[in-house]
Amino acid sequence: MRTWFWTFLVLALAVGLALALHDHGGNVLIIAQPWRIELSLTLAVLLVLAAFCIVYVVLRLLGWLTSGPERLRTWRGARAQKRDHDLLETGWVSLLEGRYSQAEKDFAKILSQSRSSGRKVLAALAAARAAHRMGEFSRRDDALALARENAGSEPRLKEAAATVAAEMYLDQRRPKEALELLQPLQDASSRYFHATYLLLRAHAQLHNHDRVFALTRLLQRRGAINKTEALGYIESSVAARLHQEGMPAYKAVWGELKSDERVLPEVALAAAAIQEADGHPEEASRILEAAIGARLDPRLLSAYSQCAPDQVAHRLSKAEVWLKSHPNDSALLAALGNLCLTGQLWGQGERYLLRSMKIRSDVRIHALLGNLYDRLGRSADAMKHWRLASGVAGVLPVLPANRALPAADMRGDPTLIDFAAVPDHEPAQASDDIPQAASAAGYVHLDVDTWDTPRLDEPAAPPQPAAAGESGLDEYFDSAPIPGVDLSQTSDRPPGGPQRR
């Protein structure tokens, strides 16, 4: 719009000047001794305009020629900036795609070529992130040191380097080092929401439950954290505080919680345990009932079913109300069965537990059924469910009963020597070389030279009756074959040797 305006203005002035020169004719006299120049007014005006244009062009040309080195430096800087931007773009694309090695190479080119400290810091931080994802922590630490060095005194670059380093330290489970980097940022301003969130993670890893609760509340007020994640941090921190501090800090901690935070499972369990230990089972029951009304959590139902006998009637009536809206909840049926066992309602407890077992085979249900049948004197059923409980738990295998062990495999044992097959001219084997089987634990070596071994060409002597002291040996050594063992493989005779008669 401005261009059109100035164009129209110049044209209007030209037209007006032309009209003025046409109506007012005259001469222009220039006297410069010894010259006398006389021109018409129109020609003089045109010459002045032409001289102005020529002078303007000459001055611009001289300015362009004198600014050549500066323009060359500017062109080189623009080209280097474009190259750095292209490398940063391709490097970040590779980093986001998961090609960390290629991304690290692109960022290394920027670090070696770029003259801009800002781009060097960005490239070093991106290279550190790529090395961190690859598990190269030494290269990551070198890149972080290079980023801090190039950041200098620039506050934003220093904060960026500290934030990125702290985030990677937290991923590596090094919360103390992350805390040292994040604490100055938090002290400077609480508007660093990402730094505050990282500080929350650091305190959570250090189990500083008070700080976790306070920082979660701060992020909730600023809307800088997801509600589900915030409830998770609040649940773990509050439950830990209740377990650690007990009844003295119960009122202070419980008073800080909102209604939706008091029904979180771990918070309700910790609060109920404190009230139960302090002798207030009714208050513990109310806390658990409110939490179970919000969500049927198996942990809450298990805790609710464990009570004194005088609390069974009240809790059983409440659980039956929940059963009307959740008739197929296995944990609720198991809790009802446990309450019935505590109140010695054997038949009703058995029905609840069997219904629960049909929905889900659980260790606790089988154990409760085993206890129930044991109290009723049904030992076989009790043993059956206890065995099933151990099988579901995976602790012990369920072995079949009355199964004999297989016979030992003796094929690998060393064979004995048949002295009948040894010729007369060959000496007997030395006592040190006699092989012993693994079962010959009580072996007593006898001198084989004193044995009366018959020759093969002599008739065998008739068998002598056994002495009275040897009858026990016949009874001890059973000649029956061993089940499952091939005796042809365990014979003490060499293959193909002569047979004794």
From TrEMBL:
One of its GO terms (cellular component) is plasma membrane. This is Heme biosynthesis protein HemY. It comes from Candidimonas nitroreducens. The chain crosses the membrane at residues 44-66. Coiled coil: none annotated. Pathway: Porphyrin-containing compound metabolism; protoheme biosynthesis. Involved in a late step of protoheme IX synthesis. It holds the Pfam family HemY_N. Residues 452-501 are annotated as: Disordered. GO terms for biological process: heme metabolic process; porphyrin-containing compound biosynthetic process. It comes from the Bacteria.
